[in-house]
Specification:
Layout: H1 2-26, E1 32-35, E2 41-42, H2 44-51, E3 56-61, H3 66-82, E4 86-94, H4 98-105, H5 111-118, H6 124-127, H7 129-138, E5 141-146, H8 149-158, H9 182-192, H10 205-232, E6 237-243, H11 253-260, E7 266-274, H12 280-285, E8 293-298
Parallel strand pairs: 3-6, 3-7, 4-5, 4-6, 7-8
Antiparallel strand pairs: 1-2, 1-8
Helix pairs in contact: 2-3, 4-5, 8-10, 10-11
Length: 304
């Protein structure tokens, strides 16, 4: 009997230890926020308060990292708690679906009906739905900021906007620029490092210019969407979510926003993978040119 009791207690202890290890394994990996000017770590509450001093926040993300998506929702909630005069803006929705998005946020159509017409990204449910649902719950506007993908794809293929249909022309930016300089150089460098999908071949030089112009078209469209909203709704803050390349080094959308509205106050958040969390103040100093806030994450990404 004593032997059975000892065996029972031993199994119980081992089971509890096993449950504990599962719980630890399921805990989200930490993401640490650092200010690039002071080199100081900032809390989520501090960041939420700081955002109130800016007109536009550009949150650059890696699209396939769920840790960043969880942080994005947390940042939005923190900012809203300190200033409810917020508006969400998303690269992931295109301007032509704005009416359907507005109707969904107003409760006029179901989520199923909305998604059937909104062309959501494949990871919408886990990555961007929390942002939209928080906005819906709090009565916040959401801007479908991007140019319709069919227009950008056609432009990348043909290198011309002449063939854009009349129905899509209203979504073209009023000012479309594709300047030479740092942004173009960085774009070409990144493109050269990315093998073409399924082929393993690098992008041909003659296609790189067309792809760069399509990238700038998206930047122009998103920047104009944000500035147009800010002009129509003075006093409201915009938190815009997009791929990291669109705003890192304060280029892309950030640069175009500043050109359209020189007095606009912009805060840029960018992610950075690190092997460990040692010496982060030193690491963040080397990233001062990248953004105002760096979100450090363990590398490689867990993608869960």
């Amino acid at each position: 009997m004593k032997t059975l009791l000892k065996s029972f207690w031993l199994l119980s202890i081992l089971f509890l230890l096993f449950l504990g290890s599962l719980a630890r394994a399921s805990e989200p990996e930490p993401v640490l926020l650092y200010d690039t000017v002071s080199g100081r770590q900032v809390s989520l509450a501090e960041l939420g308060q700081r955002l109130t001093g800016y007109d536009v926040v550009l949150f650059g993300e890696y699209h396939d990292d769920n840790r960043l998506h969880r942080l994005e929702a947390a940042v939005l909630a923190s900012a809203y708690a300190r200033n409810p005069q917020l508006t969400v803006s998303l690269e992931m929705f295109e301007q032509d679906i704005q009416p359907e998005l507005d109707r969904y946020l107003a409760g006029e159509i179901t989520e199923i009906a909305f998604l059937a017409s909104a062309r959501p990204w494949n990871n919408y449910s886990s990555a961007y739905r929390p942002l939209v649902e928080l906005a819906k719950e709090k009565g916040l506007r959401v801007i479908a900021a991007n140019i319709p993908r069919s227009v950008a794809a056609q432009y990348a293929r043909q290198g011309l906007l002449d063939g854009v249909s009349e129905s899509m022309r209203p979504y073209l930016p009023a000012v479309h620029l594709y300047p030479d300089g740092e942004y173009k150089q960085r774009f070409f460098t990144q493109l050269q490092a990315m093998p073409a999908k399924n082929s393993g071949m690098k992008v041909a030089p003659e296609k790189m210019e067309a792809f760069y112009r399509a990238q700038c078209l998206k930047d122009d469209a998103m920047a104009e969407s944000i500035v147009r909203y800010c002009r129509q709704n003075p006093g409201r803050k915009v938190v815009h979510y997009q791929g990291d390349f669109h705003s890192r080094f304060r280029l892309g959308v950030a640069e175009k926003l500043q050109e359209l509205e020189p007095a606009i106050k912009i805060l840029v958040i960018a992610p950075a993978y690190v092997d460990d969390f040692t010496d982060l103040p030193d690491k963040v100093k080397r990233l001062q040119a990248d953004s105002d806030i760096i979100a450090f994450l363990p590398s490689p990404p867990d993608k869960i």
